[in-house]
Amino acid sequence: MATSHAHDSAHGAAPEHHDHKPYGLTRWLFTTNHKDIGTLYLTFACIMFFVGGAMALAIRAELWKPGLQIFDPATFNALTTNHALVMIFGAVMPAWVGFANWMIPMQIGSPDMALPRMNNYSFWILPFAFVLLLSTWLVPGGAPAGGWTLYPPLSLQGGDGLPMTIFAIHLMGASSIMGAINVIVTIMNMRAPGITLLKMPLFVWTWLITAYLLIAVMPVLAGAVTMLLTDHFFGTSFFSAAGGGDPVMFQHIFWFFGHPEVYILILPAFGIISEIIPTFSRKPLFGYESMVYATASIAFLSFIVWAHHMFTVGMPLAGQLFFMLSTMLIAVPTGVKVFNWTTTMYKGSLSFETPMLFALAFLFLFTIGGFSGLMLAIVPADFQYQDTYFVVAHFHYVLVPGSIFAIMAGVYYWLPKWTGHMYNERLGKWHFWLSAIFVNVLFFPQHFLGLAGMPRRIPDYSTQFTDWNMVSSFGGFCFGFAQILFVIVIWQCVRGGQKAPARAWESAHGLEWELASPAPYHTWETAPDMSTIARGAQH
Amino acid sequence: MSNKRFLSRALFRRGAIAAAVLLGLTGPAFAGWDGLNMTRGVTELSAKIYDLHMLVLWVCVGIAVIVFGAMIFAMVRFRKSKGAVADTSFVHSTKFEIVWTLAPVVILIIMAVPATKTIIIIEDTRNSELTIKATAYQWKWQYDYIDSGVNFFSTLAESSNFARQKNSGIDPNTVENYLLEVDHHLVIPVDTKVRLLLTGNDVIHAWWVPAFGIKKDAIPGFVNEMWIKAKETGTFRGQCAELCGRDHGFMPIVVDVVSKDDFAHWVETHKPATEAAPDAPAAPAEAAPASATHS
Known about the structure:
The complex is a heterodimer.
Chain A: H1 4-13, H2 25-30, H3 34-62, H4 73-108, H5 116-134, H6 161-189, H7 202-233, H8 247-281, H9 288-301, H10 317-329, H11 331-345, H12 354-377, H13 379-385, H14 389-419, H15 425-452, H16 466-495, H17 530-536
Helix pairs in contact in A: 3-4, 3-5, 3-16, 4-5, 4-6, 4-8, 4-14, 5-6, 6-7, 7-8, 7-9, 8-11, 8-12, 8-14, 9-11, 11-12, 12-14, 12-15, 14-15, 14-16, 15-16
Chain B: H1 2-23, H2 44-77, H3 94-123, E1 130-137, E2 140-145, E3 151-154, H4 158-163, E4 186-189, E5 194-200, E6 205-208, E7 215-218, E8 224-228, E9 234-238, E10 253-258, H5 260-270, H6 273-276, H7 282-292
Parallel strand pairs in B: 1-5, 4-10
Antiparallel strand pairs in B: 1-2, 2-3, 5-8, 6-7, 9-10
Helix pairs in contact in B: 2-3
């Protein structure tokens, strides 16, 4: 565990806090400390990011040119399926819970999360869940290969990997629900006196709303996959027309989970961007309250748009219109957010350190993903876009330069607080520019491929798609290998470097910057006083 | 040997691609520019869909110019390194917020109106002149001309099937219509409203020919419908567009749109012979809808 060194030096740097913490393996196994658990989550997410990334590179290698060179089609399908499951449930979601653990208590003046033992449990479920999921590659019938959406009847054709995948999803869901309960209870009960709801930092707000989304939809996913399980093993016919069921019902249930899930992956990103842009604009966030209301509106709308993922299943006209219009409506609160971030920069005093660079790339590239999202909402056009690389380009734009760039921005932003050292700005900028350039080389051509008629989830393609696939694969490999820099920067920063001041960024606000860097093992054991809150709570 | 040749060509291509991407230039070898956008297609619906796509695309480009322009302006104008001093009082403006909430609503309505009209037309499958049932299997299509009894399977062409085997040694570039050719084409008449009924036999598939504009799922136990009215004759190619297992990428769709006369002739030659002979009274009735398409 890399960051243990950071805590060791934290111990040395802040002796007045009398940090009594266990050492060695048991510290990490039995920890109930929100910072340790945050580190565990982030480390786990980082490992899964590289596992999922390796699968993505395997996919891009097969798609380099037409013809099958590396994988047989079944293995290719297993790769796309597992890439998605690992990235969504293993990389992005745990990364957000890691941020929540580290930052929420420090930002609301609380000594720890409200339910520390459950916190430990919710993390330690995850390694088992993913060992179970990934070990499906070794069992008869192989890894799940019916797409991460697990549509029946196809997913039911899986072998021994099917029940293992379902049980792994149950475990991940249980972990997420526990994490979400912990966040809600912490935010509702453990805010320092004086921090009213509308004084909370935006990151806390977006996570609070995310936590409600998680609690609302993870059980829905659990229900859906349980029905798959009983259809497969216990003779039920929830999704089999032959037994009176309906395969499309699964899609409705799945996307009732799946669409809020999209916002679970992006709302905390909105929170982090709302912290970083003001800091490096040296100006408070523009329209704080409208940001909160926009987040809540997006969360509400996320529950009533699910069927836009499945316009081609054949829906009544009224259904198509409803889901098209409700989906288009999401552009309004999302637009409010983009406009607020842009206006925050107005009349500011901008500097461009690595966190700000990632935040700005987020602003541009997430917006591009928003545009393609709007296009996909238009039902007739969606009949052409659906299940093509246009969709692949769309959701990768909102997830990679969206969620993942926000995660990277957040890591660079708070690394000085976590480790007590400044990271290597030069390497950080290299990491940024390589990522920002090649993420576009990787994903932008996929818009063209989709519009030109290339379906998604195919291992081999007709020769007219060759050129853009080569561009995309080239970008993919450059983007993938550029991420090694990220690990190097973090590793160096954990090991040492220029000492970071308590307020690592000159215009950073928020209670976390009132604490020493690195943050002592136990923080806010006594609640911050009013003047500290007043200093920290200027959004 | 061919591997080596491919490698050198791949390297050359990669060089050309890198140049294209990094310098904005491209060599004549780069064929990708032909396939950047959605096809306008050959049906009334595909043209409407294309127009809608272009409308939304240009609206997005317009918004992008304004929003990205504002972002870039702020990033250039308010740099600390250029001596910009923050105005920390500029944190709220009700006027701005009303404008940037209402303006998108108006733009959305402008897009929603034509989209709604188009959906209504797409969903109107009445007055069709010919009905074909397509049944999806893992991994082929079966076409059933309800009116005339013509019935056949349509499977990936052998030339593609040989080439697509892992490490087949056959360069896909040497195979005509690689992965987009089948043994038996679906044949439909031009200028005729053809209703396509879709169902699946095992898992969910989707029927999609980009030139016709619409894709629709073929779901086991359910029947979906869509309609095609091609304005041009020709051969049009598409693929299954819903992950359906191992060979999802290898069950293409090829449609020949032919003149009404040619279609009537084609139906005559492909009608199951057994049905015409022993079941005499049924034959004229079966032929009637097909000949009706002459009008």
